[in-house]
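Dear Dr. L.,

I hope this message finds you well. Following up on our conversation about the binding site, I have prepared a predicted three-dimensional model of the protein together with fe (ii) ion. For your records, I am including the exact sequence and ligand specification that went into the calculation, followed by the structure tokens. Please feel free to forward this to your student if that is useful.
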Amino acid sequence: MAHYNWDQQLDTGIDSFDLHHQRIMEYANEIFNAVKFNDREKVGYTLDLLLEYTVSVFSYEDNLMDQSGYPYAAEHKAVHRTFTHKIARYRQRHQTGEDVSRQLLSELKVWITNHVRRDDRDYVPYVRKKFSTNWFSRFFGKKCA
Ligand SMILES: [Fe+2]
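The resulting structure of the complex is given below.
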């Protein structure tokens, strides 16, 4: 059962971004359920996947921000780095036997509601403007057509 649910306020207007963010929310839900069933192994496994995924997604977003000339790219990338370090630290603490579940879930909720809803939406117009070609529409989804 999903604890966190997607709503339209989280949509950025670019399908690929939304799919990435939805996947992060799915990881948050998987961690929530693993905690509920006291499955520490699953929490650790999902933390590994989440960390790997965020590194990959942020690399993609960072690259697009650079290419689109987004003026706050450096600040936004710093926020990505901080979040990745936090997740890595949660994973490390989990591996040493600490129960980080409450803090971790709270962190993920804040990330989804604040960063996705506010920060990521901020650079979408720059990305759309830079890549407003048919190629972009095909690659990033029909919403940009
Ligand atoms: Fe972001």
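In brief: The pocket of fe (ii) ion is lined by residues 61, 76, 80, 115, 119-120 (CB under 6 Å).

With kind regards,
A. P.
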